[in-house]
From TrEMBL:
<protein>
    <submittedName>
        <fullName>CopY family transcriptional regulator</fullName>
    </submittedName>
</protein>
<dbReference type="InterPro" id="IPR036388">
    <property type="entry name" value="WH-like_DNA-bd_sf"/>
</dbReference>
<dbReference type="InterPro" id="IPR005650">
    <property type="entry name" value="BlaI_family"/>
</dbReference>
<dbReference type="GO" id="GO:0003677">
    <property type="term" value="F:DNA binding"/>
</dbReference>
<keyword id="KW-0804">Transcription</keyword>
<feature type="region of interest" description="Disordered">
    <location>
        <begin position="112"/>
        <end position="169"/>
    </location>
</feature>
<dbReference type="GO" id="GO:0045892">
    <property type="term" value="P:negative regulation of DNA-templated transcription"/>
</dbReference>
<feature type="compositionally biased region" description="Low complexity">
    <location>
        <begin position="140"/>
        <end position="169"/>
    </location>
</feature>
<keyword id="KW-0805">Transcription regulation</keyword>
<dbReference type="Pfam" id="PF03965">
    <property type="entry name" value="Penicillinase_R"/>
</dbReference>
<dbReference type="InterPro" id="IPR036390">
    <property type="entry name" value="WH_DNA-bd_sf"/>
</dbReference>
<keyword id="KW-0238">DNA-binding</keyword>
<comment type="similarity">
    <text>Belongs to the BlaI transcriptional regulatory family.</text>
</comment>
Amino acid sequence: MARLGDLERSVMDVLWSADDWLTARDVAARLDHERDLAYTTVLTVLERLERKGFVRRQRAARAHRYAAADSRETVVAEAMLEALGTADDRGSALVRFVGSVSAEEAEILRRALEPAGADSTGPQSTGGDTAEAGTPGTDTSGTAAHDGSAAAAADDSTGAPGDDPATAP
């Protein structure tokens, strides 16, 4: 997944915090930036984010409206997986990551790794690769899964506002 520049991240922050689709003018008005940005600059950034897959666009009268394609949590999880994919020793990188999180975050990870309904007193791993082919929420290609993985489960709002075409203006 492509990385976000500072202005792109600011635009995404506006879209993630919105309850509904926004026009480019709405985004420009909500941007909390050091300098005033021209409407055309914001429009260019939105178009670039759409090409990168971060933003969805829909036609509304004469203007386009924009919404985040995925939740912030999904994008962060994909970035973490991408970074992990660059490590020579993924296991070592994971151990270092887990060692750097708070006790509360470690507990969240523990719960996310437990199979549903499993007794948490016994060992959870039988060794080998934990991503099994055909298991929902697993993806062995190095990209995040969008079908019920722990990252997607952390936020139920992975769709964009107003996803239902029947309610779109």
